[in-house]
Amino acid sequence: MTCIEEAECRRLLFCPADNSCKLYQDGTGCIVKPNINAGCSCYKKNIGCDEDNNCTCPLGYYDCSDGYSRGIEYPKELLTTIQPVSSPEPFEVLCYLDYGGFTSILMRAEYCDFEEFNRTLAEYETGFGAVYLNRWIGFNHILAILNNPHSSFTLKVQLLDINWVSCENRYSNFEIGDKTTNYVLSLTADTANCGESITGTPNLNGRPFSTYDVDFTGVHECALNYGGGWWFDESTECSQSFLTGTIEYGSSSGVYYFWKDNWNGAHIKRIALKLIRYN
Fold this sequence. Notes:
Blueprint: E1 11-15, E2 20-24, H1 34-37, E3 41-44, E4 48-49, E5 55-56, H2 64-69, E6 77-82, E7 91-96, E8 102-109, H3 121-126, E9 128-129, E10 135-136, H4 139-146, E11 152-161, E12 166-176, E13 185-192, H5 222-226, E14 241-242, E15 258-259, H6 260-263, E16 268-278
Antiparallel strand pairs: 1-2, 1-3, 4-5, 6-7, 7-8, 8-10, 8-16, 9-10, 11-12, 11-16, 12-13, 14-15
C-alpha cells in the first residue's frame, strides 16, 4: 500500500531504522521529533498531475466554512487542503470543521519547536512555519480566502494560558487591505472576553502592517523593537496586543507575545487566529 494509491492519504512517514511506513489523512500525526522518531521523514503528497495524467486533487473546499456547509464535520483540528475562489493553487490550512467551520490563519503553540516570527514583509506575504505547529499562512493566502464574493468574515482570537484558562474574542466585518494599502486592518469588535487589545487604546483598526524592514510607526520603530510583524500604532505604546512575538517565555531575545487587557502578564501557551465565513 502506498500513499499515492490511497485517496485519503495526505502524508507518509517513513522510518528507515525498522523500514516502517505509516499513512496519514492529515499532518497532525506525521511529525518528526528527535526523542521519538529520529531518522524518520515525513513526506507530503503532491497536488496535481504527473506526465501520465495521474492526478491527485485537493479536497475541493473554498475554505473550512465551505467544507462545513457541505456536511463535513470533524470535532478536532484537521490539516487539509483548500482552494479559495481566487487562488490559482490549492494550499494547506488547519481546519476546525465544527460550529460553522473555522480556517486558521495564525497558530502559536509554546510546546512546539521554535519558529522565528521576526520576518521580512515578503515572508509575511508568502507565509512561514509548519502548518500544524507555529504557522502564519501569509497575506497572499489570507487575501485569497477573503476574496469570496457576497461573503463576510468574522475573526476569532483564542488564548490559552499554562493553567488551561482560555478566552475568546470575536470581530465581525473582518477585512485586510491588499499590498497597495500595506495590508491595513479593518474589523468591528463584537465580543471581548479576553479584554479589548485591538480596538481599545491604542486602536489598531485602520493601521497598516509593520515589519522590521517595512515599518509604519515612524521614530517608534515598533516592529524592530518588538521583534515581529503586527498592525502597530504609530505611538510610544505601539499596541496592547502582540501575537507574533517570541514564544520563549522569559527570553531576552524579542518580546514575548502578549494580550494586555485582562491577560496582562499572563503566560500564554497557545494562540489561534481563525476565520469563519458568512454568506
